């Protein structure tokens, strides 16, 4: 490309650090920014400083803790308190992370922003399409579905065609100290991933209530609705003599409803907060594939627009769609967009 200045979102991990190397090899002028989102990110900032130093590039440190708290942490807590299952990365990406990256690129005079996501960008007919990365085991396109053309047109994903083991091999070959650094945990602002304890320590406990059996009668006491998610089978602390799953969480009555596996399936879902990756990517009556959680596989469906929401009808019933999780629509490898399961 003619424009050669690229700002890398650097965490000091192996993925973003190898992005720096690949872009420098390709002839770009590379700088980096690390976003400090919370007190738990102090180590991230230090790791990013080390990586930038090792590769001889300038680094900007940007404190985003205030908008992160407002837009992401408060959402995360309130969703669990409402009996829903949040995904903080999906909300953070458009509202905080990529907004900050593009704003910083503009302030510092960079043409593009690069991240270590395993996803692909296809530029065609003045549009930038978001697509699955070649390494489907690592694909992160689901997490990026709320990005639109403003963000996608400015992005580069240098790892789009690489498997993780190849990325680690490159890091080792060029002597990066992060070559064997473990992958980051799921919830970046909760280092031990114990989200229920985090919520209780900072925002108070949610009181115990009744588990309701598949037959519709109380069958035990739960320890607070924030400890459970729809589809959960393990660590329920009750024994009915057969496997049961969390079917629904009702924050009003403080009840957790259980079901047998055969009743954990749904034929359709209603989706709100619609986001499209390019104009009119989602139309009434289209055939598509949908992913209803980050680690799920895509399944065929039909999509209907109902006012400001979507009705997604599965070709075959799907197990335990969870309120608050995202339903992301695909046309083959291309991400069309999606929304939050209601």
UniProtKB/TrEMBL annotation:
<dbReference type="GO" id="GO:0005737">
    <property type="term" value="C:cytoplasm"/>
</dbReference>
<dbReference type="InterPro" id="IPR004506">
    <property type="entry name" value="MnmA-like"/>
</dbReference>
<dbReference type="GO" id="GO:0005524">
    <property type="term" value="F:ATP binding"/>
</dbReference>
<feature type="domain" description="tRNA-specific 2-thiouridylase MnmA-like C-terminal">
    <location>
        <begin position="268"/>
        <end position="341"/>
    </location>
</feature>
<dbReference type="GO" id="GO:0000049">
    <property type="term" value="F:tRNA binding"/>
</dbReference>
<dbReference type="InterPro" id="IPR046884">
    <property type="entry name" value="MnmA-like_central"/>
</dbReference>
<keyword id="KW-0819">tRNA processing</keyword>
<keyword id="KW-1015">Disulfide bond</keyword>
<comment type="similarity">
    <text>Belongs to the MnmA/TRMU family.</text>
</comment>
<feature type="domain" description="tRNA-specific 2-thiouridylase MnmA-like central">
    <location>
        <begin position="201"/>
        <end position="259"/>
    </location>
</feature>
<dbReference type="InterPro" id="IPR014729">
    <property type="entry name" value="Rossmann-like_a/b/a_fold"/>
</dbReference>
<feature type="binding site">
    <location>
        <begin position="9"/>
        <end position="16"/>
    </location>
    <ligand>
        <name>ATP</name>
    </ligand>
</feature>
<feature type="site" description="Interaction with tRNA">
    <location>
        <position position="117"/>
    </location>
</feature>
<keyword id="KW-0547">Nucleotide-binding</keyword>
<feature type="binding site">
    <location>
        <position position="116"/>
    </location>
    <ligand>
        <name>ATP</name>
    </ligand>
</feature>
<dbReference type="Pfam" id="PF20258">
    <property type="entry name" value="tRNA_Me_trans_C"/>
</dbReference>
<feature type="binding site">
    <location>
        <position position="35"/>
    </location>
    <ligand>
        <name>ATP</name>
    </ligand>
</feature>
<keyword id="KW-0067">ATP-binding</keyword>
<keyword id="KW-0963">Cytoplasm</keyword>
<dbReference type="GO" id="GO:0002143">
    <property type="term" value="P:tRNA wobble position uridine thiolation"/>
</dbReference>
<feature type="active site" description="Nucleophile">
    <location>
        <position position="92"/>
    </location>
</feature>
<dbReference type="GO" id="GO:0103016">
    <property type="term" value="F:tRNA-uridine 2-sulfurtransferase activity"/>
</dbReference>
<feature type="active site" description="Cysteine persulfide intermediate">
    <location>
        <position position="188"/>
    </location>
</feature>
<comment type="function">
    <text>Catalyzes the 2-thiolation of uridine at the wobble position (U34) of tRNA, leading to the formation of s(2)U34.</text>
</comment>
<dbReference type="Pfam" id="PF20259">
    <property type="entry name" value="tRNA_Me_trans_M"/>
</dbReference>
<dbReference type="InterPro" id="IPR023382">
    <property type="entry name" value="MnmA-like_central_sf"/>
</dbReference>
<dbReference type="InterPro" id="IPR046885">
    <property type="entry name" value="MnmA-like_C"/>
</dbReference>
<feature type="site" description="Interaction with tRNA">
    <location>
        <position position="325"/>
    </location>
</feature>
<dbReference type="Pfam" id="PF03054">
    <property type="entry name" value="tRNA_Me_trans"/>
</dbReference>
<protein>
    <recommendedName>
        <fullName>tRNA-specific 2-thiouridylase MnmA</fullName>
        <ecNumber>2.8.1.13</ecNumber>
    </recommendedName>
</protein>
<keyword id="KW-0820">tRNA-binding</keyword>
<keyword id="KW-0808">Transferase</keyword>
<feature type="region of interest" description="Interaction with tRNA">
    <location>
        <begin position="138"/>
        <end position="140"/>
    </location>
</feature>
<keyword id="KW-0694">RNA-binding</keyword>
């Amino acid at each position: 490309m003619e424009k050669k200045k690229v700002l890398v979102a650097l965490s000091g991990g192996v993925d973003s650090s190898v992005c720096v190397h690949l872009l420098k090899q390709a002839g770009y002028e590379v700088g980096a920014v690390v976003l400090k989102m919370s007190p738990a990110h102090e180590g991230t900032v230090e790791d990013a400083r080390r990586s930038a130093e090792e590769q001889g590039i300038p680094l900007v440190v940007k404190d985003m803790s205030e908008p992160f708290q407002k837009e992401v942490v408060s959402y995360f807590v309130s969703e669990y308190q409402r009996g829903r299952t949040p995904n903080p990365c999906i909300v953070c990406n458009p509202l905080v992370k990529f907004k900050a990256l593009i704003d910083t690129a503009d302030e510092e005079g960079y043409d593009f922003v690069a991240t270590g996501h395993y996803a692909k960008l296809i530029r065609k007919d003045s549009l930038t399409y978001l697509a699955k990365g070649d390494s489907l085991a690592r694909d992160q396109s689901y997490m990026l579905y709320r990005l639109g053309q403003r963000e996608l047109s400015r992005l580069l994903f240098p790892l789009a065609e690489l498997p993780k083991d190849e990325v680690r091999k490159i890091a080792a070959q060029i002597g990066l100290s992060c070559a064997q650094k473990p992958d980051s945990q799921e919830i970046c602002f909760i280092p031990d991933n114990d989200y229920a304890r985090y919520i209780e320590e900072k925002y108070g406990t949610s009181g115990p209530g009744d588990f309701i059996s598949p037959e519709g009668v109380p069958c035990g006491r739960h320890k607070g609705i924030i400890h459970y998610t729809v589809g959960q089978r393990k660590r329920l602390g009750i024994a009915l003599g057969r496997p049961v799953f969390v079917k629904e969480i009702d924050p009003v009555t403080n009840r957790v409803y259980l079901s047998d596996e055969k009743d954990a399936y749904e034929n359709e879902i209603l989706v709100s907060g619609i986001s499209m990756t390019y104009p009119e990517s989602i139309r009434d009556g289209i055939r598509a594939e949908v992913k209803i959680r980050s680690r799920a596989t895509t399944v065929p469906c039909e999509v209907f627009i109902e006012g400001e929401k979507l009705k997604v009808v599965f070709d075959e019933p799907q197990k335990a769609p969870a309120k608050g999780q995202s339903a992301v629509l695909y046309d083959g490898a291309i991400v069309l967009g999606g929304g939050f399961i209601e």
